[in-house]
Amino acid sequence: MNLRHKSSIRLLSIAFAAALPLVGAAGFATAAPVVTIVHTDAGAPGDGELTGKLGLAIDSSASRGARANELESGDAGVAVMDKVAAALAISPSTLHWDVVGAQQSGDRIDATLRVITPGYPDFSYPIHWVRVGDSWKLSQDSVCTIGAAVGGSC
User: So where does this one cross the membrane (predicted)?
Assistant: First the structure.
């Protein structure tokens, strides 16, 4: 049984349990329950995993293939990520970045890249991942957005 199926069963079980008090002793419903089933993809990564995926794409010590695998544009996007890695290498050691606010809609996850360095203004960049097959990859638009932030181009 896959995770999506288990999630659907769990949601239906919750809906059924909520409806039980509405059923009379004779087994007839005394009121029609309103049930809303929200489908979320159990396989969609959250903020922490997306931060890790972006970190791998930026990590110049990781294999080029592993880095390219994180990008919608594949190997073509690695050169931009190399520029990002070079900029981070000369940034203050107090610089911190992470991915926050991940929201999935179909085959897309929108999020914000948050960059914080004490003593400097905070920066936020809208970025997104797209589902390619069974994987979530940083979109080419987002690679360009991040690259532009460090003076790189696509």
Answer: none
